[in-house]
Write a structure and sequence with these properties.
The structure holds two protein chains of two kinds. Chain A is an all-alpha fold. In chain A, 77% of the residues lie in helices and 0% in strands. The radius of gyration of chain A is 21 Å and the shape is globular. The chains are: A mainly alpha, B alpha/beta.
C-alpha cells in the first residue's frame, strides 16, 4: 500500500488541477469577508473579527469550496488512469483495483489536510490585511484546528462521490457540481434528524463547529447522530470500494460500435 | 507440466452479438518468439488483453507457465512484461518519473532498474522532458522500457514497432531478438506488418476475424511456400506446347504472349531452355521464384494482402 501511496503522490507533480483547490480555498475568506462588507449596515456584524472570519471560512469550505475541489481532484485522479491509458500498466503489475482506489482516497484525504492548513494561512492573511482584530495563539490553534478537522471530515463525506463519479468516464466535473449542491443543502437543515445526521452537517458538528450560533439551528445537534451520519458515509465508501472493478463498459461499447462499422463496410 | 509458456484453449471474446475472438487456441513455446499476425481489427489486441487478464474471456481458458491465469494473476503477472496498444503514461511526468512509479509498485527499489531500462531503449535517464512532450517513437520506447524493466521471463508486445522510425524499428527488432537468443526470454509479439513478423518470429500464428487460421514455425511455413519457374520467351503458347509434349509438363501456364509460368520445382530448367532454343523459341529470361509470405497470407485469409 505504501508504494501505491508514494506513486499516487508522485503522480500529482505539476498537476494544474490542484490549482482548483488552491484558488478555491484562497477565495473562501476573501468572498466571506467581502460578503460582510456588502451587506446592508443593519445586518452587518459590528463585532466582526478574525474568529467570525474563521467561522465563515469553516462554513464556506464545507458548504461550497471543499466539496467542489475535492470531488473534482479525487475524481480526476481516478479518471486520469483511463484518460492517460495507464490503468493497463497498473493492472498488469498487478495492483489490486480497490487498493488503488483506496490509495487515491487516502491521498485526497492528505490533500484535504494540506488544504485545511493552507486555508488557515489564507484566512489569517486575509484577516490581517483587512485589519480584523482577535488574532492570538489560542484563536489560531483553536480555530485552525477546527478548519483542518472540518476539511478532513468534509473529505470523508465526499469520498462516495469521488468514487462514483471518478469511475464514470469524464463525469468528475458533474460530480463536483452535484456535491456542491449537496454541500449547499446544509443551509436548509436547521432542526431535526438531518441537522445532525446529514453527512455535511455532521462533518461540521464533529469538527466542533457551533451550528446554533452560525446556522441559526433551532436545537442543539446530536453528536451521536452526527457520528452515525459520518459512519454511513464511511460505510458507503467502503461498500463502493469493495464492489469496484476496473470497468470495461466503455471499451465494450467502443468495440461494438467499431464492429458494426466494419460490418457495414463489408 | 505443459511445454508451452502460453496456451489458450477455445478462447472466445464476444462484444455484444459480435465475436471479436473465436475459439482461439495458441501455443507459445519457451524461449521462442511467437508472431501473431493479422490485419487491423483481426483480434490480436483483444487476445493479448485476455492473456494479461485485462479483458475477461467470454469462454475458454488461458494457461501461462502451465497454470490457469484466472486465480493465479498475482503469481503469473509479475513474471510478464507487456506493451498493449498505445503507450499509457502520465503526461505531467518525465520518462524517469513514470518508470519510477511502476518500479516502486513492482518492488524494485534500486534506481538502477529504471536507469538500465531507459538505457536499453536509448532514452536518457533523468531527462527533464515530460511524457507529453515525447514523440510517438519516444513514447513507444518508454513503453518497451517499462515492459523489460523488471527482467520478466515472458514478454507480450502488441505492435511494438508502431511509431518508430526505420532505425528505431531495426534497433527494437535486434533488441527483441537478443532478448530471446541471449536471455532465453519467451516473446509473443503481434503485428499487422508481415515483413516484421517474418524477420523476427520463430513461430507464427495467423489470425483473421478473430479466428486462428494457421499456427506453425516460420521454417514450416516457408517450406510450404510454392516455388515456380517463369520464362520470358518469344512465344509462350508454343513453349507451353513444347514443354507438355516433350517434357511432360502439364501445368505450364501462359500468362501472356511472352510469359510462361511452370509450377513444378522438379523441372530441369536447363533441359527446358535447351529444348525451347533448339525448337526455335527464343528464351530471354528463366528464373525460379518462391511465393512470399504475403502470398501465403492472402491464400489462408482468402482475400486481401497485408501491409
Amino acid at each position: 500500500m505504501w508504494s501505491i501511496l508514494k506513486g499516487e503522490w508522485r503522480k500529482l507533480r505539476r498537476c494544474q488541477i490542484l490549482l482548483v483547490g488552491i484558488v478555491a480555498l484562497a477565495l473562501c475568506p476573501v468572498v466571506q469577508y467581502g460578503t460582510q462588507l456588502i451587506v446592508s449596515p443593519e445586518v452587518r456584524n459590528p463585532n466582526y473579527d478574525l474568529v467570525s472570519l474563521f467561522a465563515n471560512v469553516i462554513w464556506g469550505n464545507t458548504q461550497i469550496f471543499l466539496p467542489i475541489s475535492l470531488v473534482m481532484i479525487g475524481g480526476w485522479m481516478i479518471d486520469r488512469e483511463h484518460t492517460d491509458d495507464a490503468m493497463k500498466n497498473l493492472l498488469t503489475v498487478p495492483v489490486s483495483y480497490p487498493k488503488l482506489l483506496g490509495g487515491k482516497l487516502i491521498i485526497t484525504l492528505l490533500l484535504s489536510l494540506l488544504f485545511g492548513l493552507y486555508s488557515v494561512a489564507v484566512t489569517v492573511l486575509t484577516g490581517t490585511l483587512a485589519g480584523l482584530e482577535g488574532l492570538s495563539a489560542a484563536v489560531l490553534l483553536g480555530q485552525g484546528a477546527q478548519v483542518v478537522a472540518a476539511a478532513l471530515n468534509t473529505c470523508l463525506v465526499c469520498m462516495p462521490m469521488i468514487l462514483i463519479f471518478g469511475q464514470m468516464r469524464g463525469a468528475y466535473l458533474g460530480g463536483s457540481l452535484l456535491t456542491f449542491f449537496l454541500g449547499y443543502c446544509i443551509l436548509f437543515f436547521k432542526s431535526g434528524f438531518l441537522l445532525s445526521a446529514y453527512p455535511f452537517s455532521a462533518a461540521l458538528i464533529l469538527a466542533g463547529f457551533d451550528m446554533q450560533a452560525y446556522n441559526g439551528a433551532t436545537q442543539a445537534p446530536s453528536v451521536l447522530l452526527a457520528l452515525a451520519g459520518m459512519a454511513a458515509a464511511a460505510a458507503l465508501t467502503l461498500a463502493i470500494l469493495m464492489r469496484s472493478r476496473p470497468g470495461s463498459k466503455a471499451e465494450n461499447r467502443r468495440k461494438i460500435k467499431k464492429g458494426r462499422g466494419q460490418r457495414r463496410r463489408a | 507440466m505443459s511445454d508451452y509458456v502460453i496456451e489458450t484453449r477455445g478462447l472466445t471474446k464476444r462484444f455484444g452479438a459480435q465475436n471479436s475472438v473465436s475459439d482461439l487456441s495458441i501455443h507459445v513455446r519457451k524461449g521462442r518468439i511467437y508472431g501473431l499476425l493479422g490485419r487491423n481489427g483481426a483480434g490480436k489486441t483483444t487476445t493479448m488483453r485476455m492473456l494479461l487478464g485485462l479483458t475477461a474471456p467470454s469462454s475458454g481458458e488461458v494457461r501461462i507457465f502451465g497454470r490457469p491465469l484466472r486465480g493465479n494473476e498475482k503469481r503469473i503477472l509479475p513474471r510478464i512484461g507487456s506493451l498493449i496498444e498505445s503507450p499509457g503514461f502520465y503526461p505531467n511526468l518525465t520518462g524517469t518519473e513514470n518508470l519510477r512509479i511502476f518500479a516502486e509498485l513492482r518492488g524494485l527499489k534500486d534506481p538502477e532498474y529504471v536507469k538500465t531500462a531507459l538505457e536499453v531503449v536509448n532514452l536518457p535517464y533523468r531527462d527533464k522532458k515530460l511524457f507529453s512532450q515525447y514523440s510517438l517513437g519516444m513514447k513507444q520506447r518508454l513503453a518497451i522500457a517499462l515492459a523489460v524493466m523488471h527482467n520478466p521471463e515472458l514478454l507480450i508486445l502488441d505492435e511494438p514497432i508502431n511509431g518508430l522510425d526505420p532505425i528505431g524499428i531495426a534497433e527494437v527488432r535486434d533488441f527483441i531478438r537478443a532478448l530471446c537468443d541471449t536471455s532465453g526470454k519467451t516473446i509473443l509479439i503481434s503485428s499487422h506488418i508481415l515483413s516484421e513478423i517474418s524477420l523476427l518470429a520463430d513461430d507464427i500464428g495467423i489470425i483473421d476475424h478473430g479466428v486462428l487460421l494457421e499456427e506453425e514455425s516460420l521454417a514450416e511455413l516457408e517450406a510450404k511456400n510454392g516455388k515456380y519457374y517463369r520464362f520470358i520467351v518469344s512465344s509462350a503458347p508454343q513453349a507451353a506446347d513444347l514443354l507438355r509434349d516433350k517434357l511432360g509438363i502439364r501445368n505450364a501456364q501462359v500468362n501472356h504472349t511472352h510469359e510462361l509460368t511452370v509450377r513444378d520445382a522438379r523441372l530441369d530448367a536447363g533441359a527446358a531452355v535447351r529444348l525451347l532454343v533448339e525448337a526455335g523459341v527464343a528464351v530471354s529470361d528463366a528464373h525460379l521464384y518462391e511465393d512470399t509470405l504475403e502470398d501465403y497470407f492472402k491464400e489462408v485469409t482468402g482475400g486481401e494482402g497485408i501491409a
